[in-house]
Design brief:
This protein has about 300 residues and is α/β, with parallel strands linked by helices. It is built from 15 helices and 7 strands. α3 links the parallel β3 and β4 (about 80).
Amino acid sequence: MADVSMQRIAVLGGGAWGTALAVHLARLGRDVTLWARDGALRSGRALHAAACVVSAIPSHGTRDVIRRARGLLPPEATVVSATKGLEVETLLRVSEVIEDELGSDRPIAVLSGPSFAAELARGAPTAVAVAGNCEATVAAVQREFRSGYFRLYATQDLVGVEIGGAMKNVIAIAAGAVESLGLGDNCPSALITRGLAEISRLASALGGQRETLAGLSGLGDLVLTCTGQLSRNRSVGIELGKGRPLEEILGKMRAVAEGVRTTEAALALGGRHGVELPITAQMADVLAGQKTPRVAVEELMLRRQRSEVEVE
């Protein structure tokens, strides 16, 4: 795998992130095909002779697209997931969904980290993590995707990378709501910090490494998504803080805010593994219209006080 050149790459997903990755890879001189329509996938044009397939499909559509692409994928093609989320029905991480459809012998890697699509597309310096169970696959993706403005750090911690990428969107909705309420600078700082602790607890319970959450796919992505002006999930939170109903907010959005779906899935995953997720639980109530963001903040502040450092 490490010696295979990924000259021909297919990108599944014509949204902002899929398009940005396609632009980046084309800029590197790769032969890139960007799939954004059912017809192109059925004909096999998008996948013909691809050495690498990048999946940038929203989490709720990943299984269906990968299932339909299964018979068209070249046998040795590496699949790189660029999706941040969880499958609501099964609570599987996206790489697990892909493996479920393609088999455990397929080389799979995951890209995740602080990376707004628009900035990558214009060549702004960006660093992300690339995770995979096979060192050779990870090394190949590092080599073939890197550029003077795009740097990739390797890890084998698929769990930590994917949980960090999924959960940061939940915390970002909360951060946007707090920002909208005008509660000062102390509150969002505390929220981000405790949000990281919450993400780390869940990742650790699932077999991930806490150290991973201190890196690009954890803290890095969390800070960017909670504070960046281009963050869709932060924007949802801001509008919730203004008192707008979720249906109205989502109805006016052109892109997917993964955190909305991830909130309930993460809460269910935490329940399955006995992990307390207080911020996620409060956001689930806010998204369901059962309480206001201000009440959610008050309830978080009045929770039983505890040690900051958790003993495992």
